Amino acid sequence: MRAPWRDGAYPQIATGAAGAPASIVKESDEFMPSTPPAYPERDRNAEGRPENARPRDRFGAPLPRDALDEMAHAEEPDDVVASTAEALERAISLWDEERFFEAHEFLEFIWKHADVDPADREFWKGVTQVAVGCCHTQRGNTAGSVTLLERAAGYLDGYPDTHHGIDRQVLAGAAIDLAGRVRVEGASPDLGFPRFPRAGAVAS
Fold it and tell me: Bridge partners of 15?
């Protein structure tokens, strides 16, 4: 199942005084917090397959339909990878280029893939949410990024320190660290973002 934000329509969290979140709807399988929980219909081709026809900016946010599409180069995981291993390599490459919107698409492909052990779905959901939290940070959405990053760390909790070639502890710690900096400094694409923590990798 494809998540509704794959057309670039990330919902924003309503905010109250001092930027505090006014409300967050109950979490569903599509884990994005939203107020209200309304997603636009996807554009579809003649075969009924969803298409990302709406132009987006470099962080994946939707733009007016007559705007220049800064994400025209983006690839659909279903079209370019044949396995979860290939999807992870694509995701890591995009992540380390700070192309978090594109990285999350490949991570979501893994999370919802039929070959993934159901016991690991929460793990992959957490990894995906870190990427989405980083994307919200790039977009300047302080409330949304903090919510997603902290929730992601919770999903990662309880798995082995090294899992599927990923340093789970480092990833969860990076999510909490970024959430803390966003809370203090506000979300911005100028904040430093973590590199993807492959297990055994030497920190640079």
Answer: 21
Task: Sort 174 into a burial class: Cβ within 10 Å, 0-12 / 13-18 / 19+.
Answer: buried
Mention every residue, 6+ apart, whose C-beta is less than 8 A from residue 183: 142, 146
| Cα–Cα distance for residue pair 157/110, rounded to 1 Å | 19
Element (H, E) at 44: strand 43-44
Q: Would you identify the CATH topology of the domain 4-185?
A: Hyaluronidase domain-like (1.10.3450)
The predicted-structure confidence for 39-83, as pLDDT tens digits, reads as follows 234 454 455 444 556 888 778 778 788 888 767 888 898 899 999
Q: 98-103: list long-range contacts, CB under 8 Å, 24+ apart.
A: 98/134, 98/138, 98/193, 100/59, 100/131, 100/132, 100/134, 100/135, 100/138, 100/193, 101/8, 101/56, 101/59, 101/60, 101/71, 101/74, 101/135, 102/60, 102/71, 102/74, 102/75, 103/131
